[in-house]
Amino acid sequence: MRPTLADATRGRILFGGDWNPEQWPEETWHEDVRLMREAGVTLATVGVFSWASVEPRPGARDFRTLDTVLGLLDDAGIGACLATPTASPPPWLGARHPETLPRDEHGAVVWYGSRNHFCPSSPTYREHALRITQDIAHRYGSHPALRLWHINNEYGTACWCDTTAAHFRTWLQARHGTLDALNEAWGTAFWSQRYDDWAEILPPRRAQYLPNPAHVLDFKRFTSDALLECFTAERDAVTAASPRVPVTTNLMPLFPGIDGWRWAAEEDVVSVDLYPDPAAGPDDPAGAAHGALVQDLTRSQARGPWALMEQAASAVSWRPVNKPKPPGLTRLWSLQAVARGADTLCFFQWRQSRQGAEKFHSAMLPHSGPRSRVHREIRALGAELPALDAVVGTTVPARVAVLHDWPSWWAAEQPGRPSDQVSYPAVLAAWHHALWRRNLTCDLAHPEADLTPYDLLVVPQLYLLGDAALDSLAARVHAGATLVCGFLTGVADPDDRVRDGGTDARLRRILGLAAVHEWWPLAPGETVTLDDGTTGSLWSEDIEPAAPAGATTAAAYATGPLAGHPAITRHRHGAGTAWYVSTLPEPTALADLLSRAAAAAGVEPPLPAVPPGVEAVGRGPLLFLLNHTAAPVEVPLPTPYTDVLTGRHHTTAIPLPPNGVAALRP
After folding, report:
1. C-alpha angle 317/318/322, rounded to 5°?
2. pLDDT of 1 higher than 80
3. How far is residue 543 CA from its own chain's centroid?
4. Does the active-site annotation cover 200?
5. Which of 34, 93, 454, 509 has its CA 20 to 30 A from that of 168?
6. What structural domains does the chain harbor?
7. If you average pLDDT over residues 31-53, what whole number do you get?
8. Catalytic residue among 55, 154, 234, 377, which?
9. 526 is catalytic
């Protein structure tokens, strides 16, 4: 049996961040460890960008820094999340082996001098990466400080070189078997694109006009799998040296470059880096809503507790304007992550760098030192976390599933579509935000996952749906679940081939629709009014309910070329109910619709009434309340609770200050 996050946490929330001691003289290391202990740090991620230090020239090994650092952490009782350094090869590798450097879709070399400058398909890169990984694993696999292995960093590099082309062809042969099958899957009869020899196939490099969408879709699948091969090779190397130490790699949030469901299945611990923008202001919940979406997705990928591997202590350094987090926001967003399943809270990074590209990125210990406001808040957070150890290892119950799929995202956002204004992640976020506003806790689920635990199924948009997913949806709704389905769903099969009728017949039966006759995308800023007085944006459709017992119209278009046509429909399918939403309703209208569907499905928020801007989510024995507004609020309580963060007992209501958090036990 593979280890889990519980093997690293050992019953407590882990707290810490990336530590890069190779950037500092050794006397600073001792000060760092002393300040870490005073701040309550229990985990330090080390070695992420240490390849050039450990292997200063080909074949050399210099472990002195890691030896000392791991010893200092162990002496201080601080665990180590030890990284393989393979995300940033040293300059000598690119200089001596330029074939390891990636090429972009124009054929230009992506040179060393930054990070992530490697071709995932390069045998030379893989050989050197595996060799350094094996040596680190052999030396430190049984080190007493080791709690977690961290492979590479933020995988996402793509390459279009000739080595990649050969690897791509091998992948395609495994996927399609024969050239005839590939030509059929890619629809190469269009534009005379038929392939007669595997050697003719290249990655989708820069073309004269629009590339073949199925070709591009397969290349995205391949790129995710090529990177995953790199991860699993290093994972297997460290696992061989320390089979009881869990392994992770830090995923980027809602990142389109890899298929997160496939990757999560290969990790012992699912971890993510999360950097919501604090610049919107204290009364704008966009940052908190984005955080909740990423946290719910990561928890769902992990199927339980997960690790927040990176967040910012204050400002980042890569936005056009990098505003710091206002007082209290680091605590609020950190405890939001705990409420939504995180058993590990880490930051990038511990000590703020003086040099390099991220010297203005905030840190737990900023340039201004331990007396700074930022560091004082970090210390306070570290002191507070042990009060929440009761939730470690527990789940976040959810009876709502939001279906999400990376290949559907990839296919939906290619050029040559009805509207380039439709952004898959923006539509997903709008629907998730609507659930979040009403405190309807949800999981995210792969379309082919087991949906039996969920009473409400939400499909914001899944342009591409396979047969298994469609059959699963039909069966679950027929058995009694409620489905709320957004526009541009079920249009194509997994090869991006448009289904007969423009929308799959099985989905139309679930929804009670005879046809989706035409898509009528809306221009930027354009809206349509519905006959219930609400508005829709982004999209509209000419839909026809089936006769004689098809969908009923819940709201119709009142303006525009579709005036009088159904906009939102409702249909009884077996023991369940299916809604279809052919536009993007305004935020309150979408939240009202999902609340209505949830109530009909028997799904209720954890508290019957909370003030706007207050998030309520249950985890294990605790009910978390988080005030995402700039004003104090009072939250009514149906029964008495004790706030474990303060020890105070509350009978009928609890006050929350701006950015305030309560963790309530009955």
Report:
1. 55
2. yes
3. 33
4. no
5. 93
6. 5-157+225-391 (3.20.20.80), 400-600 (3.40.50.880), 614-665 (2.60.40.1180)
7. 98
8. 154
9. no
